[in-house]
Amino acid sequence: MKKLLTGVILFILLSVSINAQEREGYVFTVVKELPVTPVKNQNRTSTCWSFSALSFLESELIRSGKGVHDLSEMFIVSNAYFDKGDKYIRTSGNINFAPGSSFGDVLHVWKNYGIVPEEVMSGLNYGEKSHTHNEMDAALSGYIKALVRNPNGKFTPAWRVGFRGILDAYLGEVPDKFTYSGKEYTPQSFAKHLALDTDNYVSITSYTHHPFYSEFALEIPDNWRWDRSYNLPVNEMMKIFDYAIEAGYTVLWASDVSEKGFTRKGVAIVPETEVSNMSGSDQQRWLGVTRSELDTKLYSLEQIVPEKNITQYERQIAFDNGQTTDDHGMHIYGVAKDQAGNKYYIVKNSWGETGDYKGIWYVSETYVKYKTMNIVVHKNSIPSEIRKKLGIK
Predict the structure, then answer these.
(1) Residues 263 and 301: beta-carbon distance below 8 Å
(2) Could you point out which of 160, 246, 315, 355 has its C-alpha 20 to 30 Å from the C-alpha of 259?
(3) Residue 198: C-alpha distances to residues 201, 225, 337 (Å)
(4) CA 5 to chain centroid
(5) What pLDDT is stored for residue 85 in this prediction?
(6) Would you tell me how many other CB atoms lie within 10 Å of the CB of residue 386?
(7) What does 354-376 look like in DSSP terms, one character per residue?
(8) What confidence category does residue 16 fall into, taking pLDDT thresholds of 50, 70 and 90?
(9) Residues contacting residue 222 through CB under 8 Å, at least 6 positions apart
């Protein structure tokens, strides 16, 4: 009997030890998640803005009862690049000519040129199995920057044909017509069939160098169309995330991912790096360690770490001094909590099935509050009292 009891105790202790090991680090429980299409891979391109925005609009189609669609990111890229080339010439080279862009670019292309399914225009017209744009970007940049010097003293219509020819050679021609699910469409008629009104989507940001409840164009290189965002206090901007998700709407999210806290394992946090700001119980874990050891502890994800208290002032300082930059576009579609009850947003990335969660990131509420550049949401996903302050009907 004693041997049996001893065996049971050892089994229980072993089970507790195994469970403790399994629970080390961050363990997430989903509170709410909304439908999204599968994770894609932008690979060696700077087209996160297109991948994330179309993921967002694909979720909007699901939400509005239009079914599941896989839409062409490269249709968007091709049309946007052509517009960018035109504006570069018209401004004598005084805009940023680079492959990055903004969410407003996607909405503009959808509204003015339409959209096509992925199967109609995959954009892989150059012998690669996955998107690789280094050569195309270099060719387009060299071409347009040579032209802006205006060697003839005037521009001929031929430059547009040549520029379009480079895009078509790499991404494939933009189709005039195509057949999808047994029906013939043009890009414009397909967009009309999907029936998303791009005027229903608005950009929101939060910075103090412009008045709150006004609109301004974010001063970032990729905002070459000078699209405008509504400006809110950060706490009101944060309310939109939760209100939208609770109401069944996802959120298109632009953020800085260059921070060490945006790990490649699928978790993003803003650790408190000043021991004096941690609680008494937490301090005992960090006191007496070197800077290197502290960084290792904070970013290892082996245990939950305290995070900074982010204010409007800290957001602004990080933007003003260049610590917050417009790095990456992603798609937020849910909320989760860790084992300590801290809130995270569930984020669909476009780096393929990487990280511990196969292309999904758990981003702390603190990180979102600190590093959000701007979001795009359906205007109906904004609380009515905030819409009223912004004058959005």
Answers:
(1) yes
(2) 246
(3) 6, 16, 32
(4) 55
(5) 97
(6) 19
(7) -TTTTTEEEEEHHHHHHHEEEEE
(8) very low
(9) 49, 96, 98, 100, 101, 102, 326
